[in-house]
Write a structure and sequence with these properties.
The protein is an alpha/beta fold. It has 18 helices and 14 strands. The protein has two domains: 190 residues, Rossmann fold, CATH 3.40.50; 174 residues, Rossmann fold (3-Layer(aba) Sandwich), CATH 3.40.50.2000. The strands form two sheets. It has a seven-stranded parallel beta sheet with strand order 3-2-1-4-5-6-7.
Length: 389
């Protein structure tokens, strides 16, 4: 009852936000009608909250498509996931997930008749889960991490009972498996971090970015990846003190308001990447205002600061680490097993101000430990394939 009331409140909030927010508008449009209008049925369904979860699902999707003739349906909840998704020929349909009301769940499951559902991450929508379980449709969850979520509290008992009926969980860290076991969920195993294969493949295909290379010239670079306001402040303070460094900022949300905010803080003494082509940089700050650039940009950095640590949680630290870059971030990293591992190995560092950012390159031992982490997590998607198909 409380869950369904909450869903309707969220729906109302998104509807109000959609009047002035493009992301909310995309999420609230009649996605159920869009799905119903196509002849979609007997699909293998993958659901990802956002782009990061999709990236970790790609190898699973591609392998399943090789072994199974059913078409693939991919749904996102987040606008950033849907809008930044790059076409994958192994995926037949891509939609926003309609809001998780009882009515929507019943209509959608009946319409698409999924053979099974794979969820990448922890984006659980309990009316959909309940409907799938009722219809005896297998549900598998991978790339999941558990700490002390609300469904493990006394007031989430009803939702926990639904999770107990999920066919299997493949956790990204051992602590998550222990949390599930503690809550009497034993249909689970720890397999590791699915992100590693994808990142190594991307590294092998990195492209040169002439504008960034020219901007760097002979200077050192500190790069802020997926940053928010507080992260920007730390980075700007750092280059004001460390004059031999230039700054590249890649904001998490690339929109006019964020770019204006950064420009205002640096008194317009900066460049936009989109405007730098065939121009000589006069300032020591560059804003990446284009999508799908950040990963390739990491190789030009001497130091990387990953954003989100002063908001909901840090973003992807493994992408810069695959290039053996020193990585720093804010305090909210506890939910990320890879961050805890790297901190314990003294490879990455949690900082609260620019004064704590160190300028030394990674040691040989640190680089070896990074490589060991990636190698340990290679090809683990095959475990899911072998178990489920």
């Amino acid at each position: 009852m409380i869950y369904n009331i909450t869903i309707h409140i969220i729906k109302i909030i998104f509807s109000l936000l959609s009047l002035s927010n493009e992301k909310a508008k995309n999420v609230t449009k009649n996605n159920l009608h869009l799905i119903e209008s196509n002849n979609i049925n007997n699909v293998i369904w993958f659901h990802c909250a956002s782009l990061g979860e999709y990236e970790q699902a790609v190898n699973v999707i591609n392998e399943i498509k090789k072994k199974h003739k059913n078409k693939i349906l991919l749904t996102f909840f987040s606008a950033s996931g849907y809008k930044n998704y790059k076409k994958n020929n192994n995926i037949d349909y891509v939609y926003y997930l309609p809001f998780d009301t009882k009515k929507n769940a019943k209509i959608l499951v009946k319409k698409i008749k999924p053979k099974m559902l794979f969820i990448s991450g922890n984006d659980f929508w309990f009316n959909y889960l309940k409907e799938l379980i009722k219809n005896k449709i297998p549900v598998y969850v991978f790339n999941c991490s558990f700490v002390n979520q609300f469904y493990f509290k006394f007031y989430g008992k009803g939702l926990l009972n639904i999770l107990k009926q999920v066919n299997f969980f493949y956790t990204k860290d051992i602590n998550s498996k222990n949390v599930l076991n503690k809550n009497k969920i034993h249909n689970c195993k720890y397999i590791g971090n699915l992100r590693c294969d994808r990142i190594i493949n991307k590294k092998n295909k990195t492209k040169e970015i002439k504008e960034i290379n020219d901007f760097r010239n002979s200077s050192k670079i500190i790069l802020g990846g997926s940053t928010y306001e507080k992260d920007d402040d730390i980075l700007i303070n750092f280059i004001q003190k460390e004059k031999e460094y230039k700054l590249i900022i890649a904001p998490h949300d690339i929109n006019q308001n964020r770019i204006k905010s950064i420009k205002r803080k640096v008194k317009n003494k900066c460049h936009l990447l989109s405007e730098l082509q065939n121009k000589t940089a006069k300032h020591n700050i560059l804003i990446i205002d284009q999508m799908n650039i950040l990963f390739d940009a990491y190789k030009y950095a001497d130091i990387v600061f990953i954003g989100g640590g002063f908001n909901k949680g840090i973003h992807n630290i493994l992408e810069p680490l695959v290039f053996h870059k020193p990585v720093f971030f804010g305090k909210k990293y506890e939910k990320f097993d890879e961050a805890i591992y790297m901190i314990n190995k003294k490879i990455t560092h949690c900082v609260y101000s620019h004064k704590e950012i160190k300028k030394e390159p990674l040691s040989v031992e640190a680089k070896k430990n990074i490589d060991m982490y990636f190698n340990k997590n290679r090809h683990i998607h095959s475990i899911i394939i072998n178990d489920t198909i």
